[in-house]
Amino acid sequence: MSRSPAPLHLAVALDGAGWHPAAWREPDARPGELFTARYWTDLVTEAERGLLDFVTIEDALSLQSSRNTGPDGRTDQVRGRLDAVLIAARVAPLTRHIGLVPTAVVTHTEPFHLSKAVATLDHVSTGRAGVRVKVSVRSDESAHFGRRALPPLPEAGWESPGGQVLIKELFDEAGDYVEVLRRLWDSWEDDAEIRDLRTGRFIDRDKLHYIDFEGDRFRVKGPSITPRPPQGQPVVAALAHRAEPYRLVAASADIGFVTPHDTADARTITDRIRAAQTAAGRADETVHVFGDLVVFLDATPEAAADRKARLDGRAGAEYTSDARIFTGTPAGLADLLQDLQQAGLTGFRLRPGTLPHDLAQITRHLVPELQRRGAFRTTYGARTLRGLLGLPRPANRYATA
Amino acid sequence: MTKPVKQIHLAAHFPGVNNNTVWSDPAAGSQIDFSSFAHLARTAERAKFDFLFLAEGLRLREQNGRIYDLDVVGRPDTFTVLSALAAVTGKLGLAGTINSTFNEPYEVARQFTSLDHLSDGRAAWNVVTSWDEFTGQNFRRGGYLAQEDRYERARQFLTATWELFDSWRGDEIVADKDSGVFLSDPAPGGFDHHVSEFDIRGHFDVPRSPQGRPVIFQAGDSEQGREFAASSADAIFTRHGTLEDGRVFYADVKRRLAAYGRSHDELKILPGVTFVLGDTDAEAQEKADVIRRRQVSGQTAIKLLEQLWNRDLSSYDPDGPLPAVEPLAGENTVARGRASVRMHRDPTATAARWRALAEAKDLSIRELIIEVTGRQSFIGTPARVAASLNEFVQADASDGFILTPHLTPGGLDEFADTVVPLLQERGVFRSEYEGDTLRDHLGLGARVVTPAR
Fold it and tell me: Which of A127, A138, B281, B407 could form a disulfide with B411 if both were Cys (CB 3.0 to 4.6 A apart)?
């Protein structure tokens, strides 16, 4: 059986008490601590113990809900959360190696603010910052801001003509937003601070640049107020399920999170993203395509399946997800990951069904299993998230030298 | 009858973008590395300070149409640094300036509520307004506000964020595994706010934080600013440097509290000040003079003069006399993004005053700028500085001070080691934190001020 020698990249997606809606009722869950720094520090520290490339931290600008128009009235599931960028910053000084990739909604926020926040996360973590950009289609989120009225999601869904128009508008805007983030990160050259005693100049203003972004939807002048971050540009990620988001990943991101349901599906998705990457003129750049999987891991496949069934029972419905759901052993998951990797995926973002149980299964069982197979690192070999991911430090687009 | 001895409040201001920081000193470290912020915060906490304060900037300053390059330039995002500092401190309050013009209430409320959770109740918000188109060019929504509208927007912004802070009562999270009840309320955080600046409704998604809301600081000295502070703030930053000015301002602002049903102690008045320490008073004064000359080079003096004159003065000799020409009236087009420019409300009158001062004392441009731009400084031996600080507070010129060291990041070390113990010996400053939250440190109690709608 042929195995790719290329090492896998591994991330975990942290959200509340885990991705299963009944996860907070598990014996080891800490639902009363979801809004404390200690809870998040413990999770990220555990992920770092497993040498994972990075964690993502979910976020939204509204209460969790099964409806996209407002709260669903449920009192039996986790509701409420903290700002993901601030969680990442709070954890950064207490970790040393792991990448920190908070989610940020780009539909209602200012790119100038997010650019300096993520640049600052990179300064605070000495080069371990990323950001996952997220488009919001929820009407309750627009009402929280009152600045723009999004058309309601067409009843016919995303694939209807109305849905396509809305999606294209929001993702085009997200593309502009990422362009502004990157230009602002480049708006200071690396050596702009000169502290020249002879002339009295703290900076060389010729190494600071107005970005003068003018898109269809907004303009931003620049430069940033924050000097260029250690990685030059922090890592940009996006979750993608269909054509428009694939285009955003291909044209704008360093990592795309995708949701293949089998190896053939993974092949189709990666082919589409690679083609879009070429069309966007980025064929020679590294764009990682990570497969997302929700995982329930135990010592035997039966134990994992039973646990999920028990959780489903407590939730009152079978758990479904946009991503493939895996129940089984860490070794079984290792087999699956290596199979999917053959289809062109460069890494995986695992969504633990329950926290901390499934996270510990990943760090203490899956990782050692992959290491035994020579498919995962045995030590952190780089100081930055870009380094871990094999991404070069980007040249500054404005540098003249 | 003797007055009771007041306790002094002390805070540290991370030296930001200005000419107060002597970046040319060999001991000056990074203005951007997190280690600098962590060092100052740990020093402040070691000294049992109330809080660390970060200012904010949203556009790089310009002069004569180009980015201003003589001062420290570049700073991090306020929220992000404060949250990281929560990891390396345990009690110190974490205060940040956040603008109410280029933000939205929902986002700011969730950031401050998150920071308050992640710091176990140590967050503070210095509410400021910006209104210029210059800064607005960095924001996709623009945000230019006429000057007369800025306090109205700030007031409405604060009222809206208050509604969000108060939208969770604090008992909604049940998280009972056995019964399966996570929330006591099916739709917590409800809000509905319709005013001229904000038309928002829905459900806030962050549960109530340890302090309920951040401590509210306000800077600004106008009539509107004083009234705003008296109605809505927990602390006010001032620049009133002399004992007499401070007493007048203090009395005026404290007097205004009663109209809002607030007591004298519910608003702390904290001037921003600098300090220079020496083994003798004379040595400290000598050090202070050297620092001032390093802060105000000949080039800097000309640039600061241009900010008042609103003209290119680059042909003038900084060691020579003041220009004979008058300042250009009207909008200041020479310097943009500088608060100091907006302080020059009547440039012609200020110029006349400066000319008279220069003539009386025979000052060159540079010497005059050193004279007129010096903020209140406490200069002397640790014993003298401790005594002076205490005198200000006991005389009701302030409730304490926000100290800006002239060196990053070690500029507070000596103060912490020498002045603080003397204040503690006098019994006017704490030796240990008595509470956990910033509201505890500031003695604000549990009462929450609700701004007038």
Answer: B407
